[in-house]
Design a protein that fits this description.
Number of strands: 18
Structural class: mainly beta
Helix content: 10-25%
Strand content: 25-35%
Order of helices and strands: EEHHHEEEEHEEEEHHEEEEEEEE
Distance between the termini: 54 Å
Shape: globular
Length: about 300
């Protein structure tokens, strides 16, 4: 059985993506950039993907090798005159689909460059995965399990933050995991219990922050927020309450801050200037969907 290409990588992405190999929250995406045609990935991306393990990423070696032949790229100008890059990669075979995005973030020196990796998969059944797994993958016995309720397979991967792992390339070319030093801890863990109520993933397990990456192909910034279900929320006077939405006493979107790349790591900031969150590619379903309207200003964006 062949898996169809999920939601058209060649279309503008404007969907909430739910990842299946961890209890990750949905990620709001709204990118309409002109991506370069499919082309083999450059050498540094090849070193990165081939230097990682299947257990790190949830991506079998054969899938990573296939991805390297099918890369789409956006170049992102930096203030210093350099260019960062954003890649989308995919690999498909009978019964399996693997996808990944890689965002490069330059530092003061080439060795400081960080690669944020986000991986996704659709595998019908673990049996369909077996032809891709080789001895070099070295995965544990519980790497894949069939979920009868979801009608799909669930793959294990390494620890992530906000759906990403972060890597630097050593002089030898070997990837070094810098996730914990580059990405801060999830701010949801520090919220009062009452503010965390009503925030769950589909498995009814308390989830972390949701991530709006709708500007990530323009600026090195991610936005964190929470969406509360019916019966929960924050008073409109709460300092984290995002305005708008349905009328009533409660607000169902809570602002948690912006992750801003500083050349070494991501800082968590409560407010940023408009230049770091431009009024383009707004996703209507995300907290920032209407934040550029003069009648509904974003209280967490400094105008100048």
């Amino acid at each position: 059985m062949t898996v169809s290409q999920p939601n058209g990588w060649r279309r503008a992405l404007a969907v909430a993506v739910s990842f299946t190999f961890a209890a990750l929250p949905a990620i709001a995406v709204a990118q309409t950039e002109d991506w370069a045609p499919l082309d083999p990935a450059p050498a540094e991306i090849e070193r990165l993907l081939l230097g990682l393990s299947t257990a790190d990423t949830g991506l079998p070696l054969a899938a990573r090798q296939g991805m390297l032949q099918r890369a789409e790229r956006v170049e992102i100008p930096r203030a210093d005159g350099g260019v960062d890059q954003y890649f989308r990669l995919r690999h498909e075979a009978d019964g399996v689909y693997f996808g990944a995005t890689i965002r490069s973030l330059a530092g003061a020196k080439p060795a400081d460059t960080v690669y944020l990796l986000q991986a996704d998969h659709q595998v019908d059944r673990c049996a369909a995965l077996q032809p891709l797994l080789a001895r070099a993958d070295r995965v544990p016995g519980n790497f894949c399990r069939d979920d009868a309720d979801a009608g799909t397979a669930i793959l294990k991967s390494g620890p992530q933050r906000f759906g990403y792992t972060a890597w630097r390339l050593a002089r030898s070319g070997k990837p070094r995991n810098v996730t914990r030093s580059v990405l801060p801890e999830d701010p949801v863990a520090r919220l009062p219990v009452a503010e965390r109520e009503g925030v769950h993933d589909h498995g009814q397990v308390a989830s972390g922050a949701w991530v709006d990456r709708s500007r990530f192909a323009e600026v090195p910034v991610l936005r964190l927020y929470l969406e509360y279900g019916d019966g929960h929320g924050l008073p409109r006077s709460h300092p984290r309450a995002f305005p708008g939405g349905y009328a009533g006493e409660q607000v169902h979107t809570a602002h948690l801050g912006f992750l801003v790349w500083n050349g070494q790591r991501f800082d968590l900031r409560q407010t940023i200037p408009r230049a770091l969150w431009p009024c383009t590619h707004d996703a209507a379903f995300s907290p920032s969907g209407q934040s550029c309207r003069p009648d509904s200003p974003d209280p967490f964006i400094v105008p100048h």
